[in-house]
């Protein structure tokens, strides 16, 4: 059995955190070629590539992400060991890896995650954002503890996951005040051919809205489509188009961006889920997140 060289692992860990060989070399007070050689030796032992080049930066491969997670835990334990030996009690931080789908409201993410930082045990949160398909793949590879999404995991998914409903909300159409006043007259028919910003086609919210538009015989004039709802709100704040938001965040968004409510998408519901790799949630931070979300959506 070949033993892991922790000196090599530390070089890898530093490059991963710094994002480039040059910055890692400056921090470690060694030359970039020396670091590169050490990392190549680690890759040879593990039999995988840990980095790929993107311009001047080093980006982690999927295998590199896994190794980084273990390295973080290894060095955290090392620091704890040194503290214990020096009789300076330390509590090993609980690590929580959360994936947040692009289409999951950021304001809601903030409300859900905030209580984690008040747990009795110090909790270090690593939050990743992306497409739900990519996040579920990371969940299946145990690189995430939880995924927050606005749709359940598809039944066709090849990895074993469990979907935990968090709650649901109504949908409200919003816009900046002048446009909102105009569109309130004759709502919902007023939305026909009105300028709109919509979620991307591959999202649950977009599918829900498309069905509602068909039922109401409404065809808005789509000016933009967004995977990131936060960006969509920023764009809509400049005026020129209406958008639809879950009611649970619409009031907060109105205060932040100056929106006014036009009216509801009657009968439409936005649903929210926590997806885990275990049927029964046991991670204390994950359990708190699920409980907090259900309470806020009740």
| CATH architecture tag of the largest domain | 3-Layer(aba) Sandwich
* Average pLDDT figure: 86
CATH class division of the largest domain: Alpha Beta
Q: Largest sheet, if any?
A: 6 strands, mixed
Please give the share of residues in helix.
40-55%
Give the strand line-up of the largest sheet.
Answer: 4-3-5-10-6-9
Number of helices: 11
Question: Which parts are unreliable, with pLDDT below 50 for 5 consecutive residues or more?
Answer: none
Strand segment count = 10
List the domain count as a whole number.
Answer: 3
Compressed to H and E, one letter per element, the order equals HHHEEHEHEHEEHEHEHEHEH
Note down, in words, how this protein is organized:
Helix content is 44%, strand content 25%. It is elongated and about 70 Å long. The chain has a 6-stranded mixed β-sheet with strand order 4-3-5-10-6-9, with helices on both faces. The protein has a two-stranded antiparallel ribbon with strand order 1-2. The protein has a two-stranded parallel ribbon with strand order 7-8. The N and C termini lie far apart (54 Å). It has 3 domains: 80 residues, Winged helix-like DNA-binding domain superfamily/Winged helix DNA-binding domain (Arc Repressor Mutant, subunit A), CATH 1.10.10.10; 99 residues, Periplasmic binding protein-like II (D-Maltodextrin-Binding Protein, domain 2, 3-Layer(aba) Sandwich), CATH 3.40.190; 101 residues, D-Maltodextrin-Binding Protein, domain 2 (3-Layer(aba) Sandwich), CATH 3.40.190. With 298 residues, the protein is of the alpha/beta class.
């Amino acid at each position: 059995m070949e033993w892991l060289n922790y000196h090599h692992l530390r070089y890898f860990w530093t490059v991963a955190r710094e994002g480039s060989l040059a910055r890692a070399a400056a921090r470690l007070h060694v030359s970039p070629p020396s670091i590169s050689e050490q990392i190549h030796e680690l890759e040879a032992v593990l039999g995988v590539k840990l980095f790929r080049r993107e311009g001047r930066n080093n980006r982690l491969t999927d295998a590199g992400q896994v190794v980084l997670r273990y390295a973080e835990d290894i060095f955290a334990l090392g620091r704890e060991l040194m503290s214990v030996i020096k009789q300076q009690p330390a509590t090993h931080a609980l690590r929580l890896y959360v994936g947040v789908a692009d289409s999951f409201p950021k304001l809601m993410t903030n409300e859900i995650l905030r209580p984690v930082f008040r747990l009795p045990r110090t909790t270090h949160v690593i939050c990743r954002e992306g497409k739900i398909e990519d996040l579920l793949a990371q969940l299946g590879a145990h690189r995430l503890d939880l995924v927050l999404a606005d749709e359940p995991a598809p039944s066709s998914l090849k990895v074993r996951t469990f979907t935990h409903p968090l709650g649901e909300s109504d949908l409200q159409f919003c816009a900046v005040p002048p446009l909102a006043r105009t569109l309130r007259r004759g709502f919902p028919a007023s939305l026909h051919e009105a300028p709109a910003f919509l979620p991307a086609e591959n999202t649950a919210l977009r599918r829900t809205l498309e069905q509602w538009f068909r039922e109401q015989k409404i065809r808005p004039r789509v000016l933009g489509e967004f995977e990131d709802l936060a960006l969509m709100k920023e764009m809509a704040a400049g005026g020129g188009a209406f958008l639809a938001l879950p009611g649970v965040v619409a009031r907060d968004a109105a205060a932040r961006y100056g929106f006014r409510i036009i009216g509801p998408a009657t009968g439409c519901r936005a649903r929210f889920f926590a997806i885990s790799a275990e049927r029964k949630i046991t991670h204390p931070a994950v359990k708190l997140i699920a409980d907090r979300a259900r309470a806020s959506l009740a």
